[in-house]
Amino acid sequence: MIPAAVFASGSGSNAEAIVEESHLPCTIELLVCDKPAAPVISRAKHWNIEVFVCDPKTFPNKQAYEQAILTKLREKQIEWIFLAGYMRLIGPTLLEAYPERILNIHPSLLPAFAGKDAIGQALTAGVKVSGVTIHFVDAGMDTGSIIAQEAVRVLETDTNQTLHQRIQAIEHRLYPETIRYILTERERNDSNATSVDQRIR
Fold first, then answer.
1. What is the largest CA-CA distance in the chain?
2. Which residue numbers belong to the known binding site?
3. How confident is the model at residue 187, as a pLDDT?
């Protein structure tokens, strides 16, 4: 099984969906949280997953903050990172250590409504369709290569809460499905590349 980490800043509902999915080719070995009072921390205790609370306010800069996280990830031999409501841009320290091995989930059909409050943005814009996007993480804000998307209708009667509930229901299914697909394909490709390399040798 592939050792992986989940990063979260809030309630942790998407983190829970990943942790409780029994058919993933990975095990969640670590929860990284940047908010010492985040509800996800207490939830993680029920999952029997180690929690690493890393408060950026206690570091002189982003590089030092991410270096502390990277040290912990290497200690746990983490191979993949899944962002699940982690409200910080990933910087060069982690991006260089995990190229195309960091996934994020976003509550819109990117590139529409990137950044914070995507659901509020969609309601303000008056769109008829929003949705969910899962993508690789790069240096930008929700700009990485898109892996999967699923649309959600926006009803005339929708509030932020009602639309959020329907989008979240999709998130909790689509994120584990996409993680399973990506990890399975990546491991298969890595295995095929190794076999070719061995034949060449």
1. 64
2. 12-14, 62, 87-90, 104
3. 76
